[in-house]
Amino acid sequence: MKPLNIIIADDHPLFREGLERALLRIQPDFQIFHASHGIKVLELLDSEVVDIIFMDIRMPDRDGIEITRSIRKFNTNVKIVAVSMIDDRVTVIKIVKAGANGFLHKNTDVGELEKAIETVMAGRFYVCHEIADYESEFQDKDYEVESNSQVLLSEREIEILQLICNQYSSKEIGLKLNLTEKTIETHRNRLILKTRSKNVVGLIIYAVEKGYILPDHRRKE
User: Fold this and answer.
1) In the chain, which end has fewer C-beta atoms inside a 10 angstrom radius, N or C?
2) What does DSSP assign to residue 205?
3) Domains of the chain (ranges plus CATH)?
């Protein structure tokens, strides 16, 4: 993984230090900046080129939701990953719709941390398993990134897209992923809408062009 400039925004020094150690285990050349409050995050963005912000939701001056919303008014490039012990439905949806590119629970490990970084830096949305059930509720978020016009697909959407390309029906995908057929149809329609495809054929072409599936990939029983 290439070196990145990262802000850890959290009002607890022990958490910031622990997360920094975990990040440096992934890549010793990461440049880490600490912010104990929201205003410090904005100050760092004014003075540094930052790739990712790990954003706590609860901070003393302005919460992570408000800071994320403020950042998105002037910076659509920096990746923002919410990191919190708070995983209630309303709070998660709020920070995602404010502009976060992913959500991690604070009990995460190094492996998941690395996966989250790779996912958001590749232009996709990362959802930890603790909030996977909420995913359908923030699917109306605008996932298009102005910097590279890359549509951000969540891990679940990519999984469903690949199964569609493998010629699985909605019913079969639902059985495979333990979801209802109606939920799969909703995901299918959202994928068509988000990728600006006209139909499933267009969706498959999009998947091939974006590298989600190889041109000669076929369903294997």
Assistant:
1) C
2) H
3) 5-138 (3.40.50.2300), 155-209 (1.10.10.10)
